[in-house]
Inverse folding.
């Protein structure tokens, strides 16, 4: 299409050109960027056919890129899987199953499935416009990206996974102190970003290797230790929905729910990773390049792109949406279910009833009962999984924070996004070194703090994402009813446990008993009822707003129903 030409002007009566050729598709195996003369492009009109501008400028019109094969675009979900392996899947859930039995397994698989819907909805705005989810939040109010920046620091600003990986490595090699190794891992992560002009490519490649090693190691460990017999208890636990054994640590449980997958600030990175990969309209946005290597920066426009709802574009949208969901399902969901379940069987077999937490459970309870290959595999799997997660956490925190700073202030101030990224990476690495040197005897403490906050922050951004996707996107790009209901569930799910944790923390840790929140609501303290009322108001508002938006868009959507509705649209 020529610059300045409307996409519809370029259309003809030929068969819709939907799928990318093999040559074109291979370009996505690294990252894909298609530069366009931005200032010469036509502005989308301010009508119901295009995304609502909100507090931002207008979108530029371009055709949606052709759809590549699934094998060409695998990557973003592999990083998300890596971010998950050393958190809930290695530490929280094996500990919960060891302490409470398989009756808690229902919460794990529901948490994973819930995050499937959340993570793919976080991609929707980016695939449709090329803008990050933080830019979408900024179009609503500048408060939201800044709020998530602060919450992200509280949840991920503690290098608990690097500390835990170092603790395992030091134990395995007989080192007296884990701090030097923890610092070395942080420095190693920093140096890895200097290996490629496109920094995302380094992370994706490293995560692929680490994830494969973690999966193979976890499966082998379960087999050689004879723990697979525990799988017979899995069906009963999977259907014991709502069961929470007495004595379950609520903070650890909420951390497990948040990290039944990646969790918290990490999930928001899915939007940025798919933009770097070149998904959908993200193909027209530049990639983040390392300013030290000297490559010319690629532009990331403040106001993104959109496409006319022609038959061809809608068919491409359906194709993209199918590929996106399959990539996340087969990489993230399947990978999590396999690795976590295998590690849970080992914990249930050798640490049932133990009150040891985190790394201590594995090293002081499980390992002494093993010999030979099993004794070697435990520290190997733990170390690789924890390091994989710390790598992904550094990437996630730095990329998210740099994007927020750039969109809320840096762009107007004339700052360069790659420079903001590099400065944030350097500062976060140095901060991690300082925290590691502080006198924390148990790195698991750092993980519980971060995980609980991750669970709490998911509640508002899930609700906000659903509201944006149903009220700011045109009907043909909105989530279908199955997804809307799933996001209602996700908002209620994380909102309930967040309210419960906030009330109990205020009442039991800070002594403000008026904020006590009871699981059944009845029996809460006076201020606890206020917390529950706030939760119900947020949930009711989210449902009402999205329900109205979906109903208002029904007639418009019906006109294109034969082409725009994909699998779980």
């Amino acid at each position: 299409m020529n610059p300045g030409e409307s996409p519809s002007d370029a259309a003809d009566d030929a068969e819709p050109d939907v799928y990318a050729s093999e040559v074109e598709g291979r370009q996505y195996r690294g990252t894909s960027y298609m530069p366009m003369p931005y200032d010469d492009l036509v502005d989308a009109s301010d009508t119901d056919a295009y995304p609502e501008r909100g507090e931002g400028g207008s979108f530029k019109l371009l055709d949606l890129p052709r759809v590549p094969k699934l094998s060409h675009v695998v990557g973003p979900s592999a990083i998300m899987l890596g971010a998950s392996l050393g958190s809930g899947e290695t530490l929280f859930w094996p500990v919960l199953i060891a302490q409470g039995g398989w009756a808690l397994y229902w919460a794990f698989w529901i948490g994973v499935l819930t995050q499937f819907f959340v993570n793919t909805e976080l991609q929707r705005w980016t695939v449709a416009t090329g803008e990050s989810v933080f830019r979408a939040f900024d179009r609503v109010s500048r408060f939201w990206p800044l709020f998530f920046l602060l919450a992200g620091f509280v949840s991920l600003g503690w290098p608990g996974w690097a500390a835990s990986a170092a603790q395992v490595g030091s134990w395995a090699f007989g080192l007296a102190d884990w701090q030097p190794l923890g610092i070395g891992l942080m420095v190693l992560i920093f140096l890895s970003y200097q290996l490629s002009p496109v920094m995302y490519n380094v992370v994706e490649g490293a995560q692929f290797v680490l994830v494969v090693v973690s999966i193979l190691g976890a499966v082998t460990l379960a087999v050689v230790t004879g723990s697979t017999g525990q799988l017979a208890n899995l069906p009963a636990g999977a259907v014991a929905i709502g069961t929470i054994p007495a004595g379950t640590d609520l903070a650890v449980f909420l951390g497990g729910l948040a990290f039944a997958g990646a969790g918290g600030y990490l999930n928001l990175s899915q939007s940025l990773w798919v933009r770097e990969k070149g998904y959908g309209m993200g193909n027209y946005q530049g990639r983040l390049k390392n300013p030290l290597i000297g490559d010319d920066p690629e532009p990331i426009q403040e106001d993104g792109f959109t496409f006319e709802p022609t038959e061809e574009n809608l068919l491409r949208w359906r194709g993209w949406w199918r590929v996106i969901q399959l990539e996340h399902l087969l990489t993230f969901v399947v990978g999590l279910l396999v690795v976590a379940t295998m590690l849970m069987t080992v914990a249930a077999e050798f640490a049932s009833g133990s009150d040891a937490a985190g790394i201590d459970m594995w090293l002081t309870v499980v390992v002494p009962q093993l010999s030979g290959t099993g004794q070697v595999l435990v520290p190997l799997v733990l170390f690789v999984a924890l390091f994989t997660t710390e790598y992904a956490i550094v990437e996630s925190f730095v990329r998210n924070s740099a994007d927020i700073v750039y969109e809320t202030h840096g762009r107007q101030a004339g700052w360069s996004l790659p420079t903001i990224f590099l400065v944030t990476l350097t500062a976060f690495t140095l901060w991690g070194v300082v925290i590691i040197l502080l006198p924390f005897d148990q790195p698991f403490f750092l993980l519980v703090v971060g995980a609980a906050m991750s669970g709490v922050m998911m509640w508002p951004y899930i609700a906000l994402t659903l509201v944006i996707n149903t009220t700011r996107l045109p009907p043909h790009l909105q989530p279908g009813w199955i997804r809307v209901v799933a996001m209602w569930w996700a908002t209620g799910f994380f909102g309930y446990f967040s309210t419960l944790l906030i009330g109990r923390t205020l009442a039991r840790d800070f002594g403000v008993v008026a904020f006590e929140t009871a699981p059944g609501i009845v029996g809460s303290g006076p201020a606890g009822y206020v917390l529950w009322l706030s939760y119900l108001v947020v949930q009711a508002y989210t449902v009402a707003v999205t329900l109205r938006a979906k109903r208002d868009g029904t007639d418009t959507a019906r006109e294109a129903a034969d082409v725009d509705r994909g699998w779980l649209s």
The chain has 23 helices and two strands. The beta strands are 60-61, 305-306. Residues 373-413 form the longest helix (41 residues).
